[in-house]
Amino acid sequence: MLKIDCGPNLRMCDGLTRRSFIQAGALGVGGLSLADLFAAPQSNNYVKDKAVVLLFLGGGPSQHETWDPKPDGPGTSTSIAGHIPTILPGVRFASYFPQMAELADRLTIVRSFHTHHAEHNGAHKQIMTADITIPDGKPIKHPGMGAVYARVAGAAHSQTGMPRHVLIPPTLDHTGDRAGFAGSFESVVEGCQPAYLGASFSPFEFQVPMAEGIAKDGKKKRKNDEASENPLIGDLQPQIAASRLNSRLELLKQFDQLNRRLDSSEAMQAVNANTARALEVLRGGEVRDALDLAKENPRILAAYDTERFRNYRCNDQSKFERSGPSIGISLGRQLLMARRLCEAGCGFVTVIHSNWDFHARKGIPNIPEGMSILAPPLDHAVGAFLRDVHDRGLDDKILLVITGEFGRTPSLDENLGRHHWPRLCPLVFAGGGLKHGQVVGESDRRGGEPADNPYSIDDLHSTIMHAMFDVGKLRLDTGLPKIVMERASRGRQIAEMF
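-> C-alpha cells emitted (498 positions)
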C-alpha cells in the first residue's frame, strides 16, 4: 500500500485529533485497491463532461461578512468591515472580497439558502448527505454527494485512471507538533463517505504539501506582525527550480519506491487485468502527473499562493497563539490541485477550508479577528482559481460551489462575535456552463431569514445533480440505486442558473 505520510497525529484547536496519514492507494484508495476502482461500474451516456469543486467553508461563514453584507441593515445586522461595489450594478459584497467583487459577473450568489442544524458535527454531515435526520456524533446513514456522483459516473476515469471522487483537506503537517488555525473537519470528511454504496466510491484523500521552507522547526517562518508577505514566497517564483518543492520530492519518492518493488519482482506476471492497469496508471500515468504540483508552471503556482497570509498556531491547551511564527494557509494549493485533478478526469473534488467559527469566546476569535485571517486568502485563492479556469477554457467544464454548514446570527454580541445560524447560509456558484452574473433570492432586512425564493439542502443536491447529469436519461437506468434519483428529484434545481 502506498502511503503519503503527513506526520504525527495532530490535535485540533477544539481538542480533537486528526488522522496522521492519507492513504493514496495503488494499492490503496480509502482502504480500497485502485484495481477495485477499475472494476467498479463505469459511466454511461447521461454523464456530462463536467466536474464539481465543492469548496466547503467549515465552521459556519457569516453571510454578512461575505456576500450579503446588508448595507442598510439595522444595528449590527450589517458587515462589520463595511461593503464594496461589485462589477454587477447594485450588488455589494463585504469589503473582505475585492477580487471576487471584480469577478462577480462570473458568479451566482444565492442569498436565500438555508440549512437545518445548528451544531457543526451534525450540520456538516447533513449538508454533505442531504439527510437532515443525522444528529451530532452519529454515523452517516446515506452517502455523501461526491460518492453518489462516483456511483453514477464510475469510481475511476476509464481512460486516465483518475479517481472520480477526491477529498483535499487543509494541510497540517507544516505545523509540527501543534495544530494550526484549521479547526475540526472530521465530520466533513465523514460526510464525504459512501455509506451503503460501498468502499469503491470512497474519496481518494490527498493532503497537498506546503512549499519547501514552511518548516516544521519554524526557523524560517516570519512573525505575525505588520508584514503581509512571507519571505518564503520566493520559493514559488519562476527563478526557483520547481523540483525544490516538497510536493514533488515526497510524491516522487513514493512512486520511485513502488517502481523499484515492481521492477525487481515478478509481481506483474501474477496480477489480473484490473490490477495490472492500476499499477501502470500509478507508474507513469496522468494520476501521478496530476498529483505532482512541481509540474505546474511556477507563475501559476505563485498566482495561487496563499502561504504568505498570516495564520495562527495553537498551543498545547488548544488556544490560539497570537504572536510567534505564522504557519501559512494551504488553500491556494488545494484549489490548484483541484483544478489539476479535474483536468485529469476527476469529477467531484471536495476542498475543505476551516475554521469559520467566530464566537469570540473560549479562545475563539471574534468576527474582526477571524475574518482578517481567513477572508483574504479565500478571496485570493478563489480569484486565482476563477482566472486560471477561464484562461484554460474550463469555464463550462468546472463548476465551483462555495458554501458551509450554516451562517451566523444577524446580531453581533458584546465581544463582536456571531453565533451558529442555520436559517441562512452563504452559497456561491461559478462556471459549469451555467448562467451567472446574478443574485438569486433575497434575505430579510436583518440578513437572518430568506425573504423570498428560499432554497434548501435538497435543492443544492438537485442543482449539482442536474449540472452533472442528463437527469432525463438517468431516470431510464433501472440499475442505479434509489438514492441517485432521490438526490436529483427530491429538491428543485436553482432554475435561474439553467
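Confidence is low (pLDDT under 50) at residues 1-31, 213-249.
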